[in-house]
């Protein structure tokens, strides 16, 4: 017996997003289900072969999902809302649960944030939420009073049979189905019914899990991985007890359970987990580094302990020698009961570095994607088993040493500037009340000033021009001319509509993070580094590999050109440092705070350049501020401190009469309002239209002092909001916030909309503001 290699999950989109294209073709009616199934089966087959070839001995199953692994659990368990239930379960039921019964109107809006279900429609889709602190979104299970758990979707068992049939004689491989654990599943579910408290459903739910495990055992499965990532959260006593109860029940089944925790330490749940009657535990040795030694010391030696020191959340090569050193104590104690895996499922990293042929070779030498991470797992296990590949370990040691010295990564100027950061005043020169007075005098805006959040419809022509510029069919001069024409057009439209504060429309931006990343030093982009965000939607996060700096101004010429086309105020538009960080792969050789401050300093220079160029209203988007919150509340204060400071680094240098805006999309504000207030933006715009201004409560309760633009129109749908709707919403806002401090604007940027609906919607918005001015 030797130390075993295993894996917690493999990306399912295919090397070149084959699943995405097959799904979208199927939804459009261009592919039959049999054709879709064939693509899916091929991906599963290839994934298994890749893992076998890499030397992974226990290979995950049910990590494949047509749409989402939580949705897989819902259909498996029969948690199907009445509005989708039908006589015989079929794959389309799952798709309807995810996408709604009618073709979904507009799921794809701005990068990276989730959506609320829209219960005004009969077959409305389930809500989407972020899977812990990843950028992956799951479909929230809905529990009703009439929900009865029962094995419904049998795909799991078919896929297990399919995989077992691949098992050759004498091969040292086996398969391990992965399930979202019952406690995590329940915790993440929304209890829509009121009669039954969530936790009272646990016994009934466990009956079905037992049936599932029983069936898997009958199929010849020995190990099942049960994921309970909520163990990384801070759980109340009753949720902790639920673990004791659940695993006492599940231990009655004939399979061996590998309980998997990841993304965090176990915190106060260490004792609880060490005492659960399961056959083994997987632990994330990276995110959980602080508690790794305590866990190794405390976890019972006769059980399996699986440790993940290969990062499933990031794209850096593992420091193999350091990993081996951290594993020594575990090896001494657990011997062949020690298993080696990535830290978590590899779902969150791109598939294969080999296909990238445009990356800087030095940078590429520091990276490992999913496939390369499997090889690292194997190298670690081999070394622990006394079969170290010395050449590989030495090469890795040299690489890690080189990286520390690399001029590609380290920039003395950036570091020198960062060292002075403590001397930078983070407060604006005058307090808000004083600034507000100066800004009122300078901008002379009416009550209820109107503005938009930045982007205007990204038409086919705009996207084509960008493509042509990238591939060389348009010269830079031609491209600039095309974008300037677009800017002129949006300026005219805004003037015609009568908007008070104009924007240039962001035609030159493909994406709010990529656009800036491409212009900053220290950022790199892959060709195929896609990661699933939800369903068929994938994102390609940039890689922050080195000290970040700004070689030259990024937005100034566009904003300046836009200002030259109008006498109205032109608002400048930047993406904030926290959002830049949050939607990228971030370097792991320095604290996130340090990287964030480097970006903030680069943005500070941009802000000051804009100001010099005559742009005196500047918006800094921080859509992802809330997303960055750590999983444990006890870590929130520290994160919010540096996140807010980075905003202040970016903004504190401007004159008192330069107006700083921020935009934060849809966020719950109640538990972060103090931090949002500490950002001290003169104006904040947020997404509130669908929540009927509910999100303003946090601002009211806190007595938030600065100006607010609560979104009055839902940009996720092509519906044109009426004047009355927007007047009513603003009146509601004015009952909560003094009218002098309110702005009128849409919920978010308009880039996914068409002009056909955008113009009349904005015209109505302006009429609404005019009507309100007459009223107040
Ligand atoms: N300024 C950006 C836009 O209008 C903001 C997008 C966002 O917050 N997601 O598109
Ligand atoms: Zn937004």
UniProtKB/TrEMBL annotation:
L-homocysteine binds at residues 453-455, 506, 621. Zn(2+) binds at residues 663, 665, 687, 748. Signal peptide: none annotated. One of its GO terms (biological process) is methionine biosynthetic process. Pathway: Amino-acid biosynthesis; L-methionine biosynthesis via de novo pathway; L-methionine from L-homocysteine (MetE route): step 1/1. Zn(2+) 1 binds at residues 663, 665, 687, 748. Pfam families: Meth_synt_1, Meth_synt_2. It catalyses: 5-methyltetrahydropteroyltri-L-glutamate + L-homocysteine = tetrahydropteroyltri-L-glutamate + L-methionine. GO terms for molecular function: 5-methyltetrahydropteroyltriglutamate-homocysteine S-methyltransferase activity; zinc ion binding. Binds 1 zinc ion per subunit. Transmembrane segments: none annotated. 5-methyltetrahydropteroyltri-L-glutamate binds at residues 17-20, 130, 135, 537-538, 583, 627. InterPro entries: Cbl-indep_Met_Synth_N, Cobalamin-indep_Met_synthase, Met_Synth_C/arc, UROD/MetE-like_sf. Residues 448-770 form the Cobalamin-independent methionine synthase MetE C-terminal/archaeal domain. The active site is at 716 (proton donor). L-methionine binds at residues 453-455, 506, 621. Belongs to the vitamin-B12 independent methionine synthase family. Catalyzes the transfer of a methyl group from 5-methyltetrahydrofolate to homocysteine resulting in methionine formation. This is 5-methyltetrahydropteroyltriglutamate--homocysteine methyltransferase. It comes from Thiomicrospira aerophila AL3. The gene is metE.
């Amino acid at each position: 017996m030797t130390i075993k290699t295993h894996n917690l999950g493999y990306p399912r989109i295919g090397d070149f997003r084959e699943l995405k294209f097959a799904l979208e073709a199927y939804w459009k009616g261009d592919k039959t289900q049999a054709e879709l199934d064939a693509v899916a089966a091929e991906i599963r087959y290839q994934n298994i072969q890749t893992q076998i070839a890499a030397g992974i001995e226990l290979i995950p199953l049910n990590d494949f999902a047509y749409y989402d692994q939580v949705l897989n659990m819902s259909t498996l368990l029969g948690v199907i809302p009445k509005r989708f239930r039908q006589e015989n379960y079929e794959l389309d039921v799952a798709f309807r649960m995810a996408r709604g019964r009618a073709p979904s109107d507009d799921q794809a809006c701005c990068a990276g944030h989730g959506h609320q279900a829209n219960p005004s429609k009969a077959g409305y889709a389930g809500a989407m939420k972020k899977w812990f602190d990843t950028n992956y979104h799951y479909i929230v299970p809905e529990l009703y009073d009439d929900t009865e758990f029962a094995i419904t979707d049998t795909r799991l068992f078919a896929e297990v049979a399919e995989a077992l049939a691949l098992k050759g004689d004498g091969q040292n491989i086996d398969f391990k189905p992965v399930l979202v654990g019952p406690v995590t599943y329940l915790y993440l579910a929304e209890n829509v019914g009121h009669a039954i408290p969530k936790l009272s459903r646990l016994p009934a739910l466990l009956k079905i899990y037992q049936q599932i495990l029983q069936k898997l055992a009958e199929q010849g499965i020995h190990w099942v991985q049960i994921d309970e990532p909520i163990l990384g959260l801070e759980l109340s006593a009753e949720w902790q007890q639920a673990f004791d109860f659940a695993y006492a029940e599940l231990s009655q089944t004939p399979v061996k359970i590998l309980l998997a925790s990841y993304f965090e330490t176990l915190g106060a749940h260490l004792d609880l987990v060490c005492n659960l009657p399961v056959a083994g535990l997987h632990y994330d040795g990276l995110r959980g580094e602080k508690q790794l030694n305590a866990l190794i010391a405390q976890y019972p030696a006769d059980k399996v302990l699986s440790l993940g020191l290969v990062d499933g959340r990031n794209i850096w090569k593992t420091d193999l020698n350091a990993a081996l050193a951290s594993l020594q104590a575990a090896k001494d104690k657990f011997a062949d009961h020690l298993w080696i895996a990535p830290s978590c499922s590899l779902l969150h990293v791109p598939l294969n570095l080999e296909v990238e042929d445009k990356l800087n070779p030095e940078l590429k030498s520091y990276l490992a994607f999913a496939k390369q991470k499997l090889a690292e797992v194997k190298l670690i296990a081999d070394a622990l088993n006394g079969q170290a590949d010395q050449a590989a370990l030495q090469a890795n040691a040299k690489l890690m040493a080189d990286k520390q010295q690399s001029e590609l990564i380290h920039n003395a100027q950036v570091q020198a500037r960062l060292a002075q950061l403590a001397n930078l005043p983070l407060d604006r020169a005058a307090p808000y009340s004083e600034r507000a007075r100066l800004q009122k005098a300078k901008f002379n805006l009416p009550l209820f000033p109107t503005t938009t959040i930045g982007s205007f419809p990204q038409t086919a022509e705009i996207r084509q021009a960008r493509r042509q510029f990238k591939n060389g069919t348009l010269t830079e001069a031609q491209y600039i001319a095309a974008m300037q024409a677009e800017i002129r057009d949006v300026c005219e439209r805004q003037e015609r509509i009568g908007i008070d504060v104009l924007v240039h429309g962001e035609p030159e931006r493909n994406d709010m993070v990529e656009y800036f990343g491409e212009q900053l030093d220290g950022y790199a982009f892959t060709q195929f580094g896609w990661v699933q965000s939800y369903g068929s939607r994938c994102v390609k996060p940039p890689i922050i590999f080195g000290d970040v700096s700004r070689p030259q101004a990024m937005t100034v010429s566009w904003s300046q050109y836009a200002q030259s086309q109008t006498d109205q105020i032109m608002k400048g538009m930047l993406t904030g440092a926290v959002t830049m960080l949050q939607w990228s792969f971030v370097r792991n050789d320095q604290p996130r705070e340090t990287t964030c401050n480097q970006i903030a300093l680069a943005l500070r220079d941009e802000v000051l350049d804009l100001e010099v160029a005559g742009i005196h209203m500047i918006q800094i988007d921080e859509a992802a501020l809330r997303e960055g919150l750590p999983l444990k509340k006890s870590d929130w204060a520290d994160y919010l401190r540096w996140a807010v400071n980075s905003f202040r680094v970016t903004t504190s240098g401007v004159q008192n009469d330069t107006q700083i805006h921020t935009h934060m999309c849809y966020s719950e504000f109640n538990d972060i309002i103090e931090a949002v207030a500490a950002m001290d933006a003169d104006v904040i715009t947020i997404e509130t239209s669908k929540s009927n201004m509910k999100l303003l409560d946090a601002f009211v309760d806190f007595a938030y002092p600065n100006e607010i633009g609560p979104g009055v129109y839902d940009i996720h749908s092509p519906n044109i909001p009426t004047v009355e709707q927007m007047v009513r919403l603003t009146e509601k806002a004015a009952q909560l916030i003094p009218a002098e401090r309110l702005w009128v604007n849409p919920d978010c940027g308009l880039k996914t909309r068409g002009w056909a609906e955008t113009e009349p919607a904005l015209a109505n918005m302006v009429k609404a503001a005019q009507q309100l001015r007459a009223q107040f």
